[in-house]
Amino acid sequence: MLDREKIEEILPHREPFLLLDEVTELVPGERVVARRRVREDEYYFKGHFPGRPIMPGVLQVEAMAQAGAVAALSMPEHRGKLVLFAGIDDVRFKRLVLPGDELTLVVEMTRMRRNIGKAEATASVGEELACSATLTFAIAEREA
C-alpha cells in the first residue's frame, strides 16, 4: 500500500491537484487500485455547484489518469518521467460523486509500447460505477 507521501515520490502532482489518497494494489505497468476520499472542503465545490456540490467529471477522469500514471511510472524504465494525456475515449458518467464519497479507481493497462500506452479505467463509489473511460497516454521526460 502506498500513502500520499509514497505517491508523491512517483507522481509530480501536488495539492490541490493530487487526487489520490492511497494506492491499495499495484502491479507496475499492469494494474493499479487507488482511493480518493472526496472531502466536503474540496476547492471546486464552492463553484461546482453552490448549494449542490458535485465532483466535476473531468476531475474524476483526472483521478483515474493519476492512478494509471502510478502504474506506468512505477516501471523502472519510466521512473522520474511524466505521463501525459494522448487521448480520452468512451467516457461515461453513471453516478454523481458527492462530498463524503470514497472513489475507488481501478486502471488496467491494455497496451504499452515504448512511450505510448492505453488503459481501461473505472471510478466507483462502493459497488456503483461512477465513471469509466479508455485512456491513452504518452510518457515524456520531466525536463524539456
- How would you classify the helix and strand content by structural class? alpha+beta
Low-confidence stretches: none
Whole-number mean pLDDT: 97
Number of helices: 2
CATH class term:
Alpha Beta
* Total number of distinct structural domains: 1
Q: What separation lies between the terminal Cα atoms?
A: 32 Å
Largest sheet: 6 strands, antiparallel
Cα-based radius of gyration, to the nearest Å: 15 Å
CATH architecture: Roll
CATH topology heading: Thiol Ester Dehydrase, Chain A
**Strands in their spatial order, largest beta sheet:** 1-2-4-5-6-3
Query: Based on DSSP secondary structure assignment, what is the total number of beta strands?
Result: 6
Q: Could you give a short description of this structure?
A:
The chain is α+β, with helices and mostly antiparallel strands.
What does this molecule look like?
- 31% of the residues are buried.
- A six-stranded antiparallel β-sheet has the order 1-2-4-5-6-3, covered by helices on one side.
- The protein has one domain (4-140): Roll (Thiol Ester Dehydrase, Chain A).
- The chain is globular, with a radius of gyration of 15 Å.
- A hairpin with a 3-residue loop joins strand 1 and strand 2.
- The mean pLDDT is 97.
- It has helices spanning 4-10, 57-73; strands spanning 22-27, 31-37, 82-93, 102-113, 116-125, 128-140.
- The chain is of the alpha+beta class.
- The protein has two helices and six strands; from the N terminus they run H-E-E-H-E-E-E-E.
Features:
Thiol Ester Dehydrase, Chain A; alpha+beta; 2 helices; 144 residues
